[in-house]
Structure formats: C-alpha cells, structure tokens
Amino acid sequence: MFEKLPHPDTLKEKLIQIYASGKIPHAILFEGKEGSGNLAIALSFARLILCDQATPTDACGVCASCKKTEILGHPDLFVSYPYPKKDNKPTLSSVYFDKFRQLLKENVFPSVRDWQEKLGSSGVKINIYTDEAKDLAKRVSLKSYSGKKKIMLLWLPEYLGEAGNSILKLIEEPPENTLFFLVSENSRKVLTTILSRTQKIKIPNPTHSQTTNYLCKEYGINQTNAETIALLSRGNMNKAIKNLNNVEEPYFEPFTSWLRDCYSYKLKDINTRIEELNKNGREFIVNFLTYGMELIRESFYFSNNTTLVELPEKEMNFVVKFANLMEGKEYTTLYSILSDSIRGIEGNGNSKLILTDTSIQIKNLLRQK
Ligand SMILES: [Zn+2]
Fold first, then answer.
1. How far apart are CA 14 and CA 5, in angstroms?
2. Which end of the chain has a smaller Cβ tally under 10 Å, C or N?
3. Ligand 1 center to residue 66 CA distance, Å?
4. Span from the CA of 227 to the centroid of ligand 1 (angstroms)
5. What distance in Å separates the CA atoms of residue 295 and residue 216, rounded to the nearest whole number?
C-alpha cells in the first residue's frame, strides 16, 4: 500500500488523482532506477484500482481483492517478468511464479541480480519470450473477473527482445478495460514504439529522510541505525533492506575518529582501531569503509553546492568542517584510496595490512595540507 512506502506524498497524490479522475492511461511506464521502488509503487497502484472499498487516499488493505493482490493472486492482475529457458526451451513466466512471489516477500524492492540469484545464479540468462507475450495476449482477452479493470503488470520490459512486437500489438489495440503497467529500470532499452504509447511516471529514489523514516516505521529500528543505513544505501531501497541486518552499530564515531587519528598519525590508536575492525570481520569493514566513502561524497557535494546535502546534524557538522579542509582533487584521491581499500578487502586481501596501508595513505593526503 502507498501508506507503507517511503516515497513522497506528491507522487502518491499524483497517482491517487489519476485514479480518482477515472481516466487512467491504458499504458503507464513506471520508470525508476534500481531500488527506487517502482515495482512496489506499481503494485500499490494496482491494488488501489482493484480494491473493493478504497479510501480517498489508498487501497483499504483488508477487502478480499486487497488480500488477493497482496499475494499476487488476484485473477484480474497478470504479472510478468523475465525468466530463463527451461531445458533449453522457452517456457512461460508462470513456471517461476512461486520464486517470484518469494523474491517480493523477501525484499519488496528487488534488483535484477536478486532475481537471477533466486533463479539459480547471478549469471543466468533471462528474457521475456514470445511464448509469454502470446500467453499474455490470451489472458488479457478474457473477461474481467471482478467486472472492473484488468491489469497487466510487466516487470522489466527492457528484457522483451523479440516478444516486444507482440506486446506492442496488445498496447496498440488494448482489450477492453485493460491497463498495462510497465515497470522499467532503463527505458532507453525499451522499444521506442512501445515507449511512445505509454505515459511515463518517474519514480525517484527515496531521499535520506524518507529512507530513515521508512526504516524506523516499517522495521522498528532506531533512528541512528536507520540514518546509517540511509547513508549507506543512498536512496537505493534494495540496498537499504539488505543492510538492515548488517548495521548493528553506527559507523560515524569510529570512522571520523579514525580519520582524525590518521591526520595526527597516532599510530597506537590507529592500530587499536584496526584490531577492533578486524575482529568484526570482512563484511563489517567493507560497510565501515563504504559508509566513510558516502560521508566523504556528501562532503564533496556540499563543497560544490551547499543546498544539495540533507543529513542529520552530527553528520552535517562533519561534512561542513571537512569541506573547509578539502579541495576537489583531494576528494577524488581520498575517494579512490577508500575504494581501493574496499576492493582489496572484498578480494580477500589481508585486512590488517590493507587498513594499515590505507591509514598511511590517508595520513599522507591530509598532512600535506
Ligand atoms: Zn481493499
């Protein structure tokens, strides 16, 4: 439901207005980057349209239709998505329906990679095949079950390939009472003939405060942790959900103290910190460094345009102070020192050695000021 999503009210209101006007475009492209939640928004919109007792602002969430939509089981909601061949033959997406439902249950902001992994491996080749397009045409030609609209939701139309032309035909001559929701991460990869027949609705990635509020409200985590996750995920809700289990303690203090220690070159303190980080394991160190990189990036943005950055007070103070210290080129250097360090640790390098080397590089960079 809209109510449960992190997106701005303006977006939700726009959709509710379209719904209330009774003039829903028959093909809508919900375009948004990975983790923008465009699929969740499209599903919430479908739920609103199919709801038996919608309120002026949302689906009711409790009627029989809402219950069915929630598990993707509403007979007037057809969902399609890219999938692999089976035994080297094209089949239908419905073969993988249980897995798809599981995917959404685990993370309502799934990435393509999540989907591929769920299907077996991140390298699995997926597509929406012509057989699927033909099947969809058959399904939407049936009479609406509830007497209301039928909704054909297609996740990732960029994977349509040759089947694009069959879908195009459907959109050109839509069966009665049928709506097409195309949910795309990259509309440039969608057939232009399809694009020109859709109304585009841009789904922005949630902002820092929208992500924070969402995580506190929907996942009951504390403000500090929610803010750390928001910073780590930069509006990518897919990452935010994955980071829920990774962030047990905030990185702000340790990271900024580490920078200070590097600057003053307090070797003993640096070594103690490295020992502590090392105890927490590789994944923790990668998150620690990623957090730091994002903080540095915010500071860089701030130094270019002070209005670009929206952060909690503590982080904001750091960002402002740091921006006074640094110049453009130094930001780039620091950024690459940290990203090299992450790459090394992710590549199973010796974390202690890498962190020591990184500390020295940071010292050299900051000391030359
Ligand atoms: Zn309902």
1. 15
2. C
3. 4
4. 33
5. 21
> How far is ligand 1, taken at its centre, from the CA of residue 67, in Å?
7
Using only C-alpha atoms, what is the Rg of the chain? 24
The residue whose two tokens read 């900051």 is 366
In CATH terms, are 2-202 and 251-367 the same topology? no
Q: Give the pTM.
A: 0.78
Q: What is the pLDDT along the chain (369 residues), one digit of tens a residue?
A: 899 999 999 999 999 999 999 899 999 999 999 999 999 999 999 999 999 999 988 999 999 999 999 999 999 999 999 999 988 888 999 999 999 999 999 999 999 999 999 999 888 999 999 999 999 988 888 888 888 899 999 999 999 988 888 888 889 888 889 999 999 999 999 999 999 999 999 999 999 999 999 999 999 888 888 988 898 888 999 999 988 876 655 788 899 999 999 999 999 999 999 999 999 888 889 989 998 998 899 899 889 887 777 777 788 889 999 999 898 899 999 999 999 999 999 998 999 999 999 999 999 999 886
Residue among 137, 130, 197, 185 nearest 157 (CA): 185
Q: Where are the domains of the chain?
A: 2-202, 206-243, 251-367
Q: Write the CATH number of the domain with boundaries 251-367.
A: 1.20.272
For the sheet containing 150-155, what is the strand order?
77-80, 150-155, 178-184, 27-31, 199-202
**In terms of CATH, what superfamily is 2-202?**
P-loop containing nucleotide triphosphate hydrolases (3.40.50.300)
Which residues, by Cβ under 5 Å, contact ligand 1, an ion?
51, 59-60, 63, 66
